[in-house]
Amino acid sequence: MALKCKLRSIVVCLWRRQTLLRSTSRNLNTLATDNRILKSPPLVSLDFPDLWTSSSTSTSYDAPSTHNLGNEEIARIIDGKQIADEIISAVGVEVRRMKNAIGEVPGLGVILVGERRDSLTYVNNKTKACEETGIKFELAQFPDTCTEDEVCDAIMRFNTDPSFHGILVQLPLPQHLNEEKILGVLRLEKDVDGFHPMNMGHLAMRGREPLFIPCTPKGCVELLIRSGVEIMGKNAVVIGRSNIVGLPVSLLLQRHNATVSVVNELTSNPEEITREADIVVSAVGIPNLVRGNWIKRGAVVLDVGTHPVEEEGCCEEGGYRLIGDVCFEEASRVASSITPVPGGVGPMTVAMLLCNTLQSASRRYKFV
Predict the structure, then answer these.
(1) Cα distances (angstroms) measured from residue 338 to each of 48, 80, 330, 368
(2) Under the phi-then-psi rule, with left for phi > 0, alpha for psi from -120 to 50, and beta for the rest, what region is 174?
(3) Of 44, 124, 214, 312, which shows the fewest CB atoms inside 10 Å?
(4) CB 247 within 8 A of CB 203
(5) 136 labelled catalytic
(6) Residue 115 DSSP class
């Protein structure tokens, strides 16, 4: 039995090496630009075979390593803004290289419906980032009383304009608009938000590489990798199951070989499940939902939620400040690393959008 387990281990090791070489070669043209900027590897390089051994189901195992944090010790802050700034700067270098080499630049078209305060902030951040990197940017803005046809017409215009390589519909949309119908109008090769069913399907399937990974989940994993957090083999809990963050981030963590549990609004014991996690990603938009007693000592916490709280004299524009799903004051005294709100995952979402837009243009022009 010991010899059999050893042979299986050798097979897995060789298979991993061969798969990485094949996938790297196969994805060179489409992912070369992305790989110069990001640390995340091609997903197909992470697809290991399901070769179970007796040790896989053994009740004897090594407990996850934890940090011996005292009550007054504070977790390391994962500075998403700093990391995002580095990535955006690298995107700018690639955009200038493309312009100098072939006279073209990536183009991003954004659809905004209504005047939600958070959506306006997000779009403003995307506008500034595109200006900084030299990416062509155009905003099609509509009142919240607009029709589906008006929105679809704007998408079709971006679809047919070859100078736009990415299209983003700012979500959520007003209730009277059919989100599924509107997103279905986007051309697959311009779906830089990664929400097209084909992209989501390829994200879920082993051996497949989506054209685009959704921006916020992609940013979360990039934060973990750049922060030196091991994902493979770790227990990860995703709180929330939205199509925008919860679902795709759980799929992406699985592709990185984490053991993933998803907590939703019907979960009877969310605190107990979350306390088992080495990595916690919360994305439900409920302020201070995740308390310190939800977190295992030494866990890594990514707070995706944003919730504006009105506050007189606040330095934020509009007299409000943002807080997350996680009670930062409590969780930071238990976790080993944590993202702040703002300044954590949010800036990474914008950076990943620019990366996806650049990747789309590079694919279109066969620019390596």
Answers:
(1) 29, 10, 11, 35
(2) beta
(3) 312
(4) no
(5) no
(6) -
Catalytic residue among 47, 170, 218, 234: 170
- Of 213, 208, 209, give the one whose Cα is nearest residue 196: 213
* CATH code assigned at 220: 3.40.50.720
Q: Find residue 290's DSSP bridge partners.
A: 326
Q: Which of 34, 47, 191, 193 is catalytic?
A: 193
283 and 188 in a common domain: no
Q: What is the DSSP letter of 348?
A: H
* Domains contained in the chain, number: 2
CATH code of the domain containing 172: 3.40.50.10860
Active site residue 254: no
Please give the structure tokens belonging to residue 78: 């994962």
Q: Is residue 156 part of a domain?
A: yes
In a domain, 26, yes or no: no
Omega before 172 within 30 of 0, i.e. cis: yes
Query: For residue range 56-91, what is the model confidence (pLDDT) as tens digits?
Result: 333 332 333 334 444 557 899 999 999 999 999 999
- CA-CA distance, 145 to 142, in Å (whole number)? 8
Which amino acid is it at 157? R
From the list 195, 192, 165, the residue with the least C-alpha distance to 362 is 165
Query: Does 144 participate in catalysis according to the annotation?
Result: no
Helix H segments across 227-313?
Answer: 246-255, 270-274
Residues 239 and 341 in one domain: yes
Q: Is 219 in the same domain as 182? A: no
Domain that holds residue 269: 214-349
Element (H, E) at 76: strand 76-77
Q: Can you give the pLDDT at residue 318?
A: 58
